[in-house]
Amino acid sequence: MNRPLPDSPYTERASPGPETPVLAQSVKADVCVVGGGFTGLSAALKLSEDGVDTVLLEAMEPGYGASGRNGGQIIPGFKHDPEGMIQRFGAEKGEAMAAFAGNAPNLVFDLIDRYKIDCDAVRSGWLQAGHGPSVLPLLESRVRQWRERGAPIELLGPADTERLSGSRFYSGALLDRRGGTLNPLAYARGLAAAALSQGARLHGNSPVTAIERKGPAWLVTTPKGTVEADRVLIVTNAYTGDFWPGLARSIVPVYSYQVATEPLTPNLQATILPNRIGLSDTKRMLNYCRQDAGGRLLVGGRGYPQESTDPADFEAIGEALARIFPAVADMRLTYCWSGKVALTLDHWPHIGEVAPGISVAFGFNGRGVAMATATGRCMAEHLQGGLLESLPLPVRPFRPVPGHGLLTRFLSAAIGIKRLQDWWEVRQS
Ligand SMILES: Cc1cc2nc3c(=O)[nH]c(=O)nc-3n(C[C@H](O)[C@H](O)[C@H](O)COP(=O)(O)OP(=O)(O)OC[C@H]3O[C@@H](n4cnc5c(N)ncnc54)[C@H](O)[C@@H]3O)c2cc1C
Q: Which residues contact 173 (CB under 8 A, 6 or more apart)?
């Protein structure tokens, strides 16, 4: 049984979502989208804009998964840099992927403008801050690769990094002006309202339990109704259950924990991540932080392998906050919440077909605000007849992660080792 969406600064500030009634009958559609996060909502929006009859089924409510709980940082790019894209997919496709990924934030801001989505969005840039001198060459190379492709991105020294972050913890940073921040739950609800306005049918509290062949079409079953559709898009991400064999085992779900302080004093608001710029660091077990529109400081990082809102489970995140921003170390934490991130072993999202007419797109490795929005739109084009292979996306066959059960069981040990490596690199500075 799923729990309701946890309280967070997002639930505090976002307007209620639109009505999405339970599917309580048998209906037909051209496309059935399974999952109401950014990917599914963006796909349903584009499909309905293009006049395709679309039904979206969501187990809980739009934005219930990672999309309504994340750090709200609009980050350009996949985890891999442009040269990594070229190395893996060849020059032509690699460059197309870099252009697509680099443009993803533009799409987010365009949709917000076009559909007047009230979600505290600001294009304040994104900082990727180095946790020690040994990572500066990596940041330098990243800046060079994006600058060669015309991106407004620059390398900052320690003084400028401190000025923009309000923290002395970092050795330097890249500043990517394509990025920004928003209230992700408000954005997801806004996308849902936009999709409805274009004619999509959205059903909440309608978990898909089975997908089976029905003649040339697919029959998608929920507890109280069914959808018969020619095409199905599965975008359930780290919340994927067992309605399609093997799919859940193709990604490694991990929990990311976040806290929000009480609103900062005006003086601290002006010094800690002012202008609501987002920051993620370069650690293997990374921390991410930003100030929200209510003046609260939000800090997140890897947590226990379970959902929690118990403040006792958030000690490690509180310690990270105190380390990065000593001035707020004693501040009361108003909210503690968590969500599931879908990791893949090679850090590429999983995009492809699991059967003729059934497409899948998920596994954004913590980079989904912009990338899931853009991917959803791209998948909508594919569902209208575009060849998967011609998309600027890493399309590959689906394979269950080898030793998935063992891997998820021993994840805590692996996380411990990575934390130790991070700690050692910080000590070198
Ligand atoms: C705590 C946290 C912090 C993050 N921070 C950032 C950040 O700052 N910037 C960034 O770019 N990315 C961030 N991410 C990643 C980003 O949130 C995700 O990549 C993105 O939201 C993925 O969107 P999605 O639509 O693929 O999946 P989700 O938003 O997870 O949506 C999947 C949906 O599928 C539904 N579902 C599951 N099973 C069924 C079923 N059987 N039937 C119907 N529906 C079903 C779920 O209820 C859920 O709503 C973060 C993630 C987390 C968890």
A: 127, 128, 129, 130, 139, 155, 156, 160, 161, 164, 165, 279
Residue identified by tokens 């020059």 is: 91
Give kind and range of the element (H or E) at residue 155. Answer: strand 153-156
Cα–Cα distance between 424 and 420 in angstroms, integer?
Answer: 6
CA distance 353 to 228: 18
Q: 362 alpha carbon to ligand 1 midpoint, in Å?
A: 9
**What single DSSP character describes residue 122?**
B
Q: Is 313 helix (H, G, I), strand (E, B) or coil?
A: helix
The Å distance, Cα 340 to ligand 1 centre, comes to: 7
pLDDT digits (tens, 9 = 90+) for 306-351: 899 999 999 999 999 999 999 999 999 999 999 999 998 888 999 9
Q: Do the beta carbons of residue 35 and residue 372 sit within 8 Å? A: no
Q: Is 73 in the pocket of ligand 1 (CB under 6 A)?
A: yes
122-137 residue pLDDT tens = 999 999 999 888 999 9
Neighbouring-strand partners of residue 126? 176, 278
Atom of ligand 1 nearest to the CA of 62: 49
362 touches ligand 1 (CB under 6 Å): yes
Q: Is the CB of 180 under 6 A from ligand 1?
A: no
Both tokens of 361, joined, read: 């797109």
Q: What are the sequence ranges of the domains in the chain? A: 1-125+178-250+345-398
What is 1-125+178-250+345-398's CATH topology? FAD/NAD(P)-binding domain (3.50.50)
Q: Which of 209, 237, 289, 313 to mutate to test the pocket of ligand 1 (most atoms within 8 A of CB)?
A: 237
Q: Which atom of ligand 1 is nearest the CA belonging to 255?
A: 53
Whole-number Å distance between alpha carbons of 117 and 111: 8
d(CA 395, ligand 1 centre) in Å: 20
Q: 67 CB contacts (<8 Å, ≥6 apart)?
A: 37, 38, 41, 184, 185, 187, 188, 368, 372
